[in-house]
Design the sequence.
């Protein structure tokens, strides 16, 4: 395919279908892994695991310093640059992981519950900051080239490897601790990161091990990293605050409900993932070129969301039977959070559109401001209200961010419509 050519009609649908197949194929794998974790570790240890995972989710994108998005941005417009951006991204990620990992270890006493085992934290940081970043970078090669079937392979393979490692752990004669659980995950992630790198090298050639491409665009990379990090603060701060201020048990219940909700959000994630490289391609022609794509995505996303919410509410009472008696309180939390599906859909669409149109800075500022509001609400509401306070803060922050991002997008469109033919604003 010509690197700059437009994919043929129907490619978006095929890519969405390919990603959806990947998401749905790995969903039962993740659910089995999730159920094994809740039943084996118990609600308290699962709450600690959820808090550590939330910290890793927030700091993981920061370790790559935005190089993953830069790879997608450039390789989606010119695939011949993928090789150099892959090498640059891997180099930057390796160095960034050391810095970010050291920072997390130093601040863990403030962020995480006192019960957190440092060995488990260190292992999970190695898996998520170092090894998972390799997998993500290799996956980005196939996102940029819109070969979503290969991204799907990587997407399915990682949870399969982790589940296999856990099953081996459970079959052994040793007792199961959070640290041993983390060790099994790190080994599996390491094995799969090597296989993912082999796939990427076969696709685009050996990486060019140089930071030069990144250093030319480090400011944009930091904006991408900040945007992803702040977005994950928005998504994950509730688990950390709950675990710290209301205890691991509350965090375990809340995180279990949240994990199930993420399963229901799977089709939307597939749709957005398939459309993301197109955001850059259409955005290169100006923000007006993004409007038809945004309308299509909004129609499909809201249509699914309006069906998913009642389904989640209806099925919520069945969840404790699967997870165990310790998770009896998951059902009302899950029903309360169900409205997150349409809220997150409505929030994600203008966010990705702003990124594709070249307004990542504005998106990052909006996310940062609302993330601060979210954390303040959590700190104020969790101590007196516990899980209910976390639910309320999360819903308010999600709705607020959606309103802010849509307002920004409409302002961008208004300015573009006012431009004169020579690209200047009329007097």
Sequence:
């Amino acid at each position: 395919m010509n690197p700059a050519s437009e994919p043929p009609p129907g490619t978006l649908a095929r890519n969405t279908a390919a990603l959806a197949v990947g998401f749905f194929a790995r969903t039962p794998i993740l659910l089995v892994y999730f159920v094994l974790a809740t039943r084996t570790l118990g609600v308290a240890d699962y709450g600690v695991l959820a808090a550590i995972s939330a910290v890793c989710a927030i700091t993981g994108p920061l370790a790559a310093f935005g190089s993953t998005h830069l790879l997608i941005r450039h390789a989606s417009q010119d695939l011949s640059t993928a090789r150099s951006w892959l090498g640059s991204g891997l180099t930057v990620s390796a160095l960034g992981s050391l810095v970010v990992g050291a920072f997390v270890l130093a601040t863990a006493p403030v962020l995480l519950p006192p019960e957190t085992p440092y060995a488990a934290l260190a292992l999970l940081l190695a898996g998520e900051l170092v090894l998972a970043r390799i997998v993500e970078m290799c996956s980005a090669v196939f996102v940029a080239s819109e070969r979503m079937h290969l991204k799907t392979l990587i997407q399915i393979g990682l949870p399969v490897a982790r589940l296999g490692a856990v099953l081996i752990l459970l079959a052994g004669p040793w007792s199961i601790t959070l640290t041993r659980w983390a060790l099994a995950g790190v080994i599996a992630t390491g094995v799969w990161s090597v296989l993912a790198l082999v796939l990427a090298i076969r696709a685009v050639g050996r990486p060019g091990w140089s930071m030069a491409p990144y250093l030319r665009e480090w400011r944009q990379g930091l904006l991408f990293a900040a945007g992803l990090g702040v977005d994950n603060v928005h998504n994950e701060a509730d688990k950390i605050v709950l675990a710290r201020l209301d205890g691991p048990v509350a965090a375990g219940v809340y995180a279990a409900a949240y994990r199930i909700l993420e399963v229901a959000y799977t089709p939307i994630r597939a749709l957005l993932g398939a459309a993301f490289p197109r955001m850059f391609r259409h955005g290169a022609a100006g923000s007006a070129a993004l409007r038809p794509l945004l309308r299509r995505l909004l129609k499909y996303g809201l249509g699914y969301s309006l069906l998913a919410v009642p389904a989640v509410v209806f099925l919520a009472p069945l969840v404790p039977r699967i997870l165990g008696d310790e998770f009896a309180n998951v059902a009302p939390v899950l029903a309360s959070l169900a409205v997150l599906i349409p809220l997150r859909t409505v929030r994600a669409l203008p966010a990705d559109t702003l990124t594709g149109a070249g307004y990542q800075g504005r998106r990052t500022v909006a996310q940062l401001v609302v993330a601060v509001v979210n954390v303040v609400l959590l700190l104020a509401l969790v101590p007196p209200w516990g899980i209910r306070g976390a639910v309320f803060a999360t819903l308010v922050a999600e709705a607020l961010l959606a309103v802010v991002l849509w307002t920004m997008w409409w302002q961008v469109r208004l300015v573009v419509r006012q431009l004169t033919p020579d690209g200047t604003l009329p007097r």
Summary: The chain has one domain: 11-416.
